[in-house]
Amino acid sequence: xxxxxxxxxxxxxxxxxxxxxxxxxxxxxxxxxxxxxxxxxxxxxxxxxxxxxxxxxxxxxxxxxxxxxxxxxxxxxxxxxxxxxxxxxxxxxxxxxxxxxxxxxxxxxxxxxxxxxxxxxxxxxxxxxxxxxxxxxxxxxxxxxxxxxxxxxxxxxxxxxxxxxxxxxxxxxxxxxxxxxxxxxxxxxxxxxxxxxxxxxxxxxxxxxxxxxxxxxxxxxxxxxxxxxxxxx
Length: 233
Hints:
- 38% of the residues lie in helices and 17% in strands.
- The chain is built from 8 helices and 9 strands.
- The strands form 2 sheets. The chain has a 7-stranded mixed sheet with strand order 1-3-2-6-7-8-9, with helices on both faces. Strands 4-5 form a two-stranded antiparallel sheet.
- Helix 4 (88-117) packs across helix 5 (131-139).
């Protein structure tokens, strides 16, 4: 399945009334845009000229009657990955096809927002959580013009083997992941950091001790500082 319909979801307009930059929030599997728009007020305190968009993923979630998904996770088994972390690369490779097929929806959304607000690519950042991070890492490096940056919470880089040949731009990135994550093991972000660094990306990895699958206050602070640095007006 390939996403062709336009994305939509909750929006928090720029607090100043003038949009000089954009943040797109990409939610996780089984959630929707309402899940991450709650982060926007925290970021808006330091980014008053930034508009925040939190689109719903294009497909109904196969395992939730109300949520949405960017691609299928029907065969994903986090418990198996925790028992056998050496299989992580293979598991991520299996999900890469779904992410690659459906990144077009996010690409189109980025293009439409940049055109709407008459802004260059380096005035837009992506913030993802879990599957949303996977989509952000799938999309951003494959765009011709580098966006301002990517914040990735509790996610992974899919299709690592083919990644180097697909790179078109290298936006700065920050990855934040809990060491006790039972859904996407911390090894996923460690692998992503290794691959991104090897390919010349400016990327930070922050491991949050004992944090499970979520975003804590320190993660929000790290993301805020990153966004302020790369989008601050």
